[in-house]
Amino acid sequence: MLRFVTTNQGKVREAREYLGETVEQLDFDYTEIQADDLVTVAAHGAREAYRHAQEPVLVDDAGLFVDAFDGFPGPYSAYVEDTVGVERVWRLTREEDDRSASFKTVLAYCDGEGFDASPEPVDHETRTEDGSRDERTGSGATRERRGQDQSAEERAAATTDDQVATGDLPVKIFEGYVPGEIVAPRGEGGFGYDPIFEHDGTTFAEMTPEEKNAVSHRGRALAKFGEWYRER
Ligand code: ITT
Ligand code: NA
Q1: Compositionally biased, Basic and acidic residues: which spans (predicted)?
Q2: Catalytic positions, please?
Q3: How many domains does the chain have?
Q4: Is 60 near ligand 1, meaning CB less than 6 Å away?
């Protein structure tokens, strides 16, 4: 049985459309390590959740990236929602000429086994500038360039499928991205930042779960994962 590891009911609702009854929520609050990208956070969480559950787990780490703020709140989105709040994120962004933003989701799957490292084999560990181990490998150039020289928007846009994060336990990574704009809150559906995120003229909170899934960061990542998982 696959466990979808989250404390967030909104994520579970959206995952059901792709994973159906083969998925069970595991309400486990894994350690969200301090890191400036979602892949590192999700991969770490998946390993911790797998060790806890001893069953295949899928972790979902998401964030809202506001271009005018160089991608803030990004990996700190949950903390900012709890402290600043969604309404005030809108009011801060309102002051900016450029209100473009994006959502990104990283799904990290771990079942204690290895994977074929497609599209490119991963046979090395990289080191970050400060000498600490960098668990993010795979997909060649995109990964290599994922450094300080890349803008948050570039980073968010440069999402690729089928990355494998190595380290102790192998973790398979699936990413999803959606561009949009920060607007005054509208709509009653969804969760989190959905009322202030507009895509093609409609906020995510104005969409049904099906409509949101069809275009959203999470829907895209789940579709990739679902396709891979069913073939497995
Ligand atoms: P788990 O970590 O337990 O899964 P969480 O709600 O803390 O639940 P994240 O850290 O991934 O999940 O979420 C970061 C923030 O982004 C948090 O404030 C969410 O409410 C928000 N968020 C995530 N996905 C979203 C979506 O599809 N629409 C709107 N807000 C979203
Ligand atoms: Na979280």
Answers
A1: 121-156
A2: 61
A3: 1
A4: yes
Q: What is the pTM of this model?
A: 0.82
Which residues span the domain enclosing 11? 2-231
Residue nearest to atom 7 of ligand 1 (CA): 78
Classify residue 192 by its DSSP letter. T
Q: Which of 5, 31, 222, 221 is nearest to 111 (CA)?
A: 5
pLDDT in tens, 6-48: 999 999 999 988 988 778 999 999 998 888 899 999 999 999 9
What does the block give as tokens for 110? 């771990």
Q: What is the dihedral of CA 32, 165, 24, 35, to 10 degrees?
A: 10
Q: Give the ipTM.
A: 0.98
Q: Tell me what pLDDT residue 217 has.
A: 98
Q: 3-class DSSP state for residue 107? A: strand
β-bridge partners, 197: 182
Question: How much distance in Å is there from the Cα of 121 to the middle of ligand 1?
Answer: 31
Q: How many residues does the chain have?
A: 232
Give per-residue pLDDT as tens, 156-167. 444 444 566 666
Strands 2-5, 23-26: pairing kind? parallel
Strand partners, 64: 74, 103
